[in-house]
Give the backbone structure.
Amino acid sequence: MNITIITLLLIIIVLLIYYIKKLETISVIERRHRQEINALKKDPYKDMNALRAEKNKEIQALEEKLKNLQNEYYKGIKLPIKQALTSSRNAFKREIGEIFCPFHEGFPYHSKDCTFIGNPIDYIIFNNLDGYRDGEKNIEDIEIIFFEVKTIHSAHLSKVQKAIKYAVENKKVKFKTYQYDEATVNKGKTILIEKYN
């Protein structure tokens, strides 16, 4: 995500430099034409009305180019930024909604049994575990549920979520324990130090 933001910022900077150069060029041309008009105003032998009309047309054309550049700037920079911010806000709102889902009224599981992971599955629910701790439930009542929260607008599982669902439904789920000692920890520290030094 940080790379995307940096890339977007670099694109914005390049486009800004491009449009600033274009605006400077138009400004120089417009200034030169105005100087020519002023010089011609001082010369009484020139046909001022014809010249003024011609230069006004050129100025109008330059103003039209400036307006087009401003529209390109809006479409090329401001609009994508606005769209990116809207998309980011919507994703943030969805994530907040997912995090607080166990506290919604009518949520089918006890919030203390829910562990938020976020990716690739939103929750692992240890159903009835809190009741088992309190002596209210038996060990046979405990079940582990991989739980994905979806809004009405995004009700489809991703490819990875479908793979996890398949593994669970086909009982490809295990419980394993990993034990380590001080030597293992020190060896890991040595590997990390060697890797980053």
In short: The chain has a mean pLDDT of 82. Residues 40 and 60 are 19 Å apart (CA to CA).
